[in-house]
Amino acid sequence: MPDNLLEIKNLRIEATVYAPGEKPRDVVIVDDVSLSLARGKVMGLIGESGAGKSTIGLSALSYGRGGIRLSGGEIRLNGKQIRGASPSVLRSLRGKEVTYVAQSAAAAFNPAKKLMEQVTEAALKHGVMSKDEAEKRAVELFRTLSLPDPENFGNRYPHQVSGGQLQRAMTAMALCPKPDLVIFDEPTTALDVTTQIDVLAAIKTAIAETGVAALYITHDLAVVAQVSDEIMVLRHGKMVEHGTVQQIIEAPREEYTQALISVRSIEHEQMQPTPAPLLKVDGVFARYGSMSKDVLSDVSVELHPGQTLALVGESGSGKSTMARVITGLLPPRQGEITFDGKPLPPALKQRSREELRELQMIYQMADVAMNPRQTVATIIGRPLEFYFGLRGRKRDERVQELLDAIELGKGFGDRYPAELSGGQKQRVCIARALAAKPKLIICDEVTSALDPLVADGILKLLLDLQKREGVAYLFITHDIATVRAIADSIAVMYQGRVQRYGPKDQVLSPPFDDYTDLLLSSVPEMELGWLEKVLAHRKMTSAGN
Amino acid sequence: MKGMTLSALLGLFITGLFFAAAILAPWIAPYGMSEIVGDIWEPSSADFWLGTDNLGRDLLTRMIYGGRNTIFVASAATAVSFCLGSILGFTAAVYGGWVDQAMSRFNDLVMSIPTLIFALVVLSVMPVTLPILILVMGLLDSTRVFRLSRAVAVDINVMDYVEAARLRGEGQRWVIFREILPNALSPLVAELGLRFIFAILFISTLSFLGLGIQPPAADWGGIVKENREGIVYGIPAALIPAVAIVTLSISVNLVADWALNRTTSLKGGRGA
Amino acid sequence: MHPVLKLVIQRLALGLLLLLAASVLIFVGTQILPGDVAQAILGQGATPEALANLRSELGLDEPAFTRYIEWLSSALQGDLGTALSNGRDIASSIGGRLQNTLFLAAVAACISVPLAIFLGLLAVRYRDRWPDKLISAITLTSISLPEFLLGYVIMYFFSVQWGLFPSVSNINSGMSFLEKLNAVALPAMVLTLVVLAHMMRMTRAAILNVMQSAYVETAELKGLRRFTIIARHAMPNAIAPIVNVVMINLAYLVVGVVVIEVVFVYPGMGQYLVDHVAKRDVPVVQACGLIFATIYIGLNILADVISILSNPRLRHPK
Question: Which positions in chain A touch C220 (Cβ < 8 Å)?
Answer without folding.
Answer: 63, 94
